[in-house]
From TrEMBL:
Cross-referenced InterPro entries: Calcineurin-like_PHP, CNP_phosphodiesterase-III, Metallo-depent_PP-like
Protein known as: Metallophosphoesterase
Top-level taxon of origin: Bacteria
SUPFAM superfamilies from the UniProt entry: Metallo-dependent phosphatases
Keyword terms: Hydrolase, Iron, Metal-binding
Ranges that cross the membrane: none
Originating species: Dactylosporangium siamense
Family note: Belongs to the cyclic nucleotide phosphodiesterase class-III family.
GO MF annotations in UniProt: hydrolase activity; metal ion binding
Domain Calcineurin-like phosphoesterase, residue spans: 4-195
């Protein structure tokens, strides 16, 4: 059976372009995915108004959404909020607990989302994220409970694969540990944060990154999102890009699985 997912990221309400957001919803309705993975940075400054706008957008999605936060969904320099109640507005508007993994299952699909954004980090750049051992254990437990033939998807914000223009931004912290533990256990790792669309294979896993879906925070390329179609041992990542008028097919990458390992075609 074919499973179709949509991957959207870095919506950045507060810096959203309303015409692009409307066109994105229209394109998603047409694509009719079984699930929409929302890979974080729903807001620009984590304000109540931005979360309310993000919530209204999520309510319009034509499929169940699995939503994880990004670094912009933490109060930036509102230090008391950042350390005292970092996820208060997230919980209020989005309704999930960023401290727990979230799971969505559908026919042929198990998807788990984890929070990789952190209140602080042991480096100067607190926009960087991390994945930890309890999160990996929760992900593996959800995958282990699913039928063996299901597509196994991890949804996060920070990237497991970088591309030359963003090499300096850093992989998600502990990505090496995560890739070792997820090897042969997961199929697809979805992320955002870089605002660039690309995909590839790392340690036998397909990694797909989508650009900023509907904000004006372009990092050298237009708004985009991904449609991912998986059918047994065949998977395609199709990037749909904003062309000034609507979202249209831009680029397509194909992957095949042999045993537990995926490779690019
Ligand atoms: Fe972002
Ligand atoms: Fe980010």
């Amino acid at each position: 059976m074919t499973v179709r997912l949509a991957q959207i990221s870095d919506l950045h309400f507060g810096r959203d372009v309303p015409a692009v957001a409307r066109a994105l919803l229209a394109d998603l309705r047409e694509a009719a995915p079984a699930m929409v993975a929302v890979c974080g940075d729903l807001t620009q400054r984590a304000t109540a108004a931005e979360f309310a706008a993000a919530r209204a957008f999520l309510d319009e999605l034509p499929a169940p959404a699995l939503v994880v936060p990004g670094n912009h969904d933490l109060p930036g320099w509102r230090v008391w909020s950042r350390f005292g109640r970092p996820w208060r507005l997230w919980r209020l508007h989005i309704g999930t607990d960023p401290g727990e993994a979230v799971t969505h299952t559908a026919d042929g699909l198990v998807a788990v989302g984890v929070t990789t954004a952190r209140r602080w980090g042991p480096h100067h750049d607190w926009s960087r994220g991390r994945i930890n051992s309890p999160q990996l254990a929760a992900i593996l437990a959800a995958f282990a409970a699913a039928p063996r033939d299901d597509l196994r998807v991890l949804v996060a914000h920070h990237p497991f694969l970088l591309t030359p223009p963003v090499l300096g931004r850093g992989l998600v912290g502990r990505s090496g540990l995560a890739l070792r533990r997820l090897g042969g256990q997961a199929d697809l790792l979805l992320g955002g944060h870089t605002h660039l669309a690309y995909s590839g294979v790392v340690n036998g896993l397909v990694v797909a990154q989508s650009g900023t879906a509907c904000s004006d925070r372009h990092k050298g390329e237009p708004n985009s999102y991904n449609l991912i179609d998986a059918d047994g041992d065949h998977l395609t990542v199709s990037t749909r890009r904003w062309n000034g008028d609507r979202f249209a097919a831009h680029q397509r990458s194909e992957y095949l699985r042999a045993g537990h390992e995926w490779r690019a075609v």
